[in-house]
Automatic annotation (TrEMBL):
This is LysR family transcriptional regulator. Belongs to the LysR transcriptional regulatory family. Keywords: DNA-binding, Transcription, Transcription regulation. PROSITE patterns: HTH_LYSR. It comes from Vibrio mediterranei. SUPFAM superfamilies: Periplasmic binding protein-like II, Winged helix' DNA-binding domain. InterPro entries: LysR_HTH_N, LysR_subst-bd, WH-like_DNA-bd_sf, WH_DNA-bd_sf. PANTHER family: HTH-TYPE TRANSCRIPTIONAL REGULATOR (PTHR30126), LYSR FAMILY TRANSCRIPTIONAL REGULATOR (PTHR30126:SF91).
């Protein structure tokens, strides 16, 4: 082969470092290896790539400069293909789909997903909404590989599941909402007088689960987390919200946590990690990291 990744990489490195020896140090090879590779490339393609003058840094010939600019585009792509091939050879999945839920996307999970992309730089990480996507099983090509969502669902055939956290629900509203002005403990009768922000039904938020969170006959139904947050901040109503996700809003004074007495400690749901059987190296690494945090 006249041109390959190694030869083009040498060409680029020499041009950018200004010498054969500096390129050799950067590439962790001997200077003679770099020199021989360039000479062999020049012979094979019949073009002189560098002007070599004793006591001066090598400089690209016009032909060498033309190839250099082409190599700047090609080398990163070839290197990416080689990294991808090595990743596939080691059993790494080229992509991984993780379904997350707005009510259980805790900071520790997002941090682990960030670490996942650093650990496996060739991975295409796909994040989907657990309310719209189911967990994939062995006989399904569509769906998520891993899911982090409120627990209590019926496990799917060909999948694994483990409780990894919990949702401690609290009631929040805008500081300007009438409920935030009430003194003392707020009763269910107080909540019934005002609209409650409640999610539409989905794959996770079933009618039964939503009914257990309902405390008002007057509802404002929402579909996306952004809609919920916007309506809360503008004082449209109150909502049940995971305390781990609500705390930053409470700390910054954007919302007020309502004193609802015993409901603060009694409303707890499990958070479940589920995954399809037969995950590869990448998915297995992520599962192990999540479970390790539980120990």
């Amino acid at each position: 082969m006249l041109l390959n990744t190694e030869r083009l990489q040498y060409l680029v490195c020499i041009a950018e470092t200004g010498s054969f020896s500096a390129a050799a140090r950067k590439l962790n090879v001997s200077a003679s290896a770099v020199n021989q590779a360039v000479q062999a490339m020049e012979i094979d393609i019949g073009i002189r790539l560098f002007e070599r003058v004793a006591g001066k840094s090598p400089s690209l010939t016009p032909e060498g400069k033309a190839l250099y600019f082409q190599a700047l585009e090609i080398v990163p792509r070839l290197q990416a293909i080689e990294r991808k091939a090595r990743a596939l050879q080691s059993g790494e999945e080229p992509s991984l789909t993780i379904a997350t839920h707005s009510m259980t996307l805790y900071p520790r999970f997002t941090e682990l997903m960030s670490s996942l992309t650093l650990q496996f730089p060739e991975l295409e990480l796909i994040l989907v909404d657990a309310e719209k996507h189911q967990l994939s099983t062995n006989d399904e090509s569509l769906g998520a590989d891993i899911m982090i969502a409120p627990g209590g669902l019926c496990p799917q055939r060909g999948s694994n599941a483990q409780i990894i956290d919990n949702i401690e629900w609290c009631f929040i509203t805008s500081p300007n909402h009438p409920l935030a002005k009430l003194k003392g403990e707020i009763t269910p009768e107080d909540l019934e007088h005002y609209p409650q922000l409640l999610s539409l039904e989905g794959k996770v938020a079933t009618s039964e689960l939503l009914e257990s969170l309902r405390f008002s006959p007057r509802l404002i139904r929402y579909e996306t987390p952004d809609q919920l947050q916007d309506m809360l901040l503008y004082g449209a109503g109150f909502a049940a919200y995971p305390i781990k996700l609500a705390q930053p809003f409470i700390d910054h004074g954007l919302v007020t946590k309502l004193n609802v007495g015993h409901y603060d400690s009694s409303m707890v749901w499990p958070v479940e990690l589920s995954w399809r059987s037969g995950l590869g190296t990448v998915g297995t690494w992520f599962i192990e990291q999540v479970l390790e945090q539980e120990r």
